[in-house]
Design brief:
By secondary structure, the protein is an alpha/beta fold. It has 4 helices and 9 strands; from the N terminus they run E-E-E-H-E-H-E-H-E-E-E-E-H. Helix 1 (about 40-60) packs parallel to helix 4.
Length: about 150
């Protein structure tokens, strides 16, 4: 996993059928980049709603929020609409962005080991440097925890 003080790798991800974003599009702003396993699952929904509920305060601090998972654009659209999510959701189906950040790796769940998203968040400053890494996330309070850091 990348560490604080590291230059954040640039990337390009689809956020809708006809739109993509790059991390470099947001130079001059703070970026809250969070990796989550799957749309519409209990923990991921709690985490997304925590960001939603703190979104105005986070943007008041000059930050944008980008959630990234391997899910499709169609899945992201359903997730965004169902939960009224105001921030970007990027589709990383080949998990290349997650790998670049160290947010893809081996995990054990219910005694079974598999490869997948390691739930984590990177706060990136206006010049593109990682200033905070959350590698342990409380999905219910994560938006508040990020806001407290900002």
């Amino acid at each position: 996993m990348l560490t604080e003080g590291t230059k954040a790798p640039d990337f390009m991800l689809q956020i809708s059928e006809d739109r993509s974003i790059r991390l470099s599009d947001f130079l001059g702003k703070k970026v809250v980049l969070y990796f989550y396993p799957k749309d519409n699952t209990p923990g991921c929904t709690k985490e997304a709603c925590s960001f939603r509920d703190n979104y105005s305060a986070i943007t008041d601090k000059g930050a944008v929020v980008i959630g990234i998972s391997p899910d499709s654009i169609a899945s992201h659209n359903r997730f965004r609409e169902k939960h009224d999510l105001p921030f970007f959701l990027g589709s990383d189906p080949d998990h290349k962005v997650a790998e670049a950040y160290g947010a893809w790796g081996e995990k054990t769940r219910f005694g079974k080991t598999s490869m997948g998203i390691l739930r984590s968040t990177f706060v990136i400053d206006e010049s593109g440097t990682i200033i905070k890494v959350f590698d342990k996330v409380n999905t219910e309070t994560h938006g508040q925890d990020v806001l407290a850091f900002l």
